[in-house]
Amino acid sequence: MKARAQPPAIPRLSPEQVDALNAEAFELRMSDTPRALQLAQQAHDLALAIDHPRGLAYALLRWSLCEFILGEPMAELQARLDRAHSLLEALGEVPGHLDALNLQALIRTRQGAYEQALLLHQRTLELARLHHVYQAEARALNNMALVHHALGQLPDALELLQHSLEVAARAGSITNQAYTLGQLGQVLQGIGEMELAVEHLQRSLRCARQSPDLARQATSALNLGALLSRLGQHAEARPHLEEALTLSRRTGNVSDLGQALLGLGQSCLAQGEADAALAAFEEARPLAQRMGDIPSLCSIELGLADLWRARNELAPAQGALERALGHASDGRISALAGRAHLALSELAELRGDPALALQHYKAHHACEQRLLGERSQQRLRGLFVRHQAQALSQELQAARQADQEKQALLTQLSAQADLLRQLSHEDALTGLANRRWLDLLLEQEFERAARFRHPLSLAMLDLDHFKDVNDRFGHAVGDAVLRQVGRLLRDHCRRADVVARYGGEEFTLLLVETTLPLASQLCDKLRQQIETFDWHKLHPDLQRITVSIGLAGNAEAHTPASLCALADAQLYSAKSAGRNCVRPSPAAAD
Length: 590
Description:
Blueprint: H1 15-28, H2 33-50, H3 53-70, H4 74-91, H5 94-110, H6 114-130, H7 134-150, H8 154-171, H9 174-190, H10 194-209, H11 214-230, H12 234-251, H13 254-270, H14 274-291, H15 294-310, H16 314-331, H17 334-350, H18 354-401, H19 403-425, H20 435-452, E1 456-463, H21 466-473, H22 475-492, E2 498-503, E3 506-512, H23 516-532, E4 547-553, H24 560-576, E5 582-584
Parallel strand pairs: 4-5
Antiparallel strand pairs: 1-3, 1-4, 2-3
């Protein structure tokens, strides 16, 4: 008879594996974001399996960042980031805490909550300066400038960017220098210094190309191409826009990909390449919808309207303009709504409807007036935000001055927290996982096994005639027996497995990545180890301790509770069969 092949050995899991996955995800976040996301998710699952809080925190952070770059829905992303932020802050992980604060602020910026974003960036800046993390300091200054730019506070933005450029140079970060120069180019456009803007964006692209950050290269190329296109230099703009498109496809950055397609569509349209423009606009539209990017949706529809109008196809042009107006009205974007009304007025005039043309022209004029009022409100809003940021800076300065007095207390509280965390996970008698921690790990492992279609086995183990041990030798010997059984189980199980005291004289083994036949072999070896142990060491008259084991697998169970119930039923079967045996569920024989 041919011998049955042994199942491959399951590799031991370690914190180092989790850290390596997190490090690789970090390296790939800007060059291959989808791959980085997969690595972060793997790190998350491994960290949960081995209870590695630091690894779990960074995995959640990397996962959140990749989803942000890929334009995933905000609700789950925010919940995951909140967990990462809390863990990193509690663990005292300064670099991770700074990264989490930065991402929280970027989310607020994307949502238009500029006041909250600026306050979060201000907090990041203070902490980065406190801990001398220069790259985080430069990044915070850059992102604060971005918010001030959005608020119309261009002098403030310029001042922050000058500081950022100095910090980035001191830190030797070519990527941060590229980012800062790109931001300076954007601000210089806002004040009408177009030649200087082009010069800074060219410098930004040169710096970006010296770094391994493909996402930065894509953004720098995109910004330069967009400005050249705006200046009517479409032939010069095209190579940069195409470079941005190629790079953003590689990195998976949905925002840059959508903007590159939009810019390329506008450039193609200006050069009379209608078919290429149409293809670019049509590809950009679902990306903008996915991101909830209303300004881009408006611009896409306005570009399509120009395309159809150039072909003298007025009905599609009318539809595109009405969609653009709808998006602009939903987003309360007066500038784009005004452009849509003006184009609709011109279209109505072409179609011989002067009344409708006048109506849209009046609406265009009203949008222009509203835009002037919005700019005034924006300036006031910027003043309010600046005041709030200054107040926060003063509070952080006071907290920093008191920091030395708090360090001893924080150290003491940290030690107490570690002790409480250990007590909440461990059984006091055996040092194994307790019932509460087992329930949590079982739920996580069951979900992971179902997601990846991996085997999972659960063993329920009960000491035979344990009441007789307590009655004959006393509870002190009984406790010693329980501790020794716990040590034997822990020493002869794999590191990835979970050994827990379920209650009384009952133990539970959670055997990950383990089929029922392999689990049955392992459990029988454990049974033999317990039976053959020299129990005289605990008491001269203690002859032998045996155990009965019931075993079940996740292929037969739909929930963690049903898996426990199946294993418990098999334990009862083992007791009924005479004890000192392993009774797997029938599926083990398949």
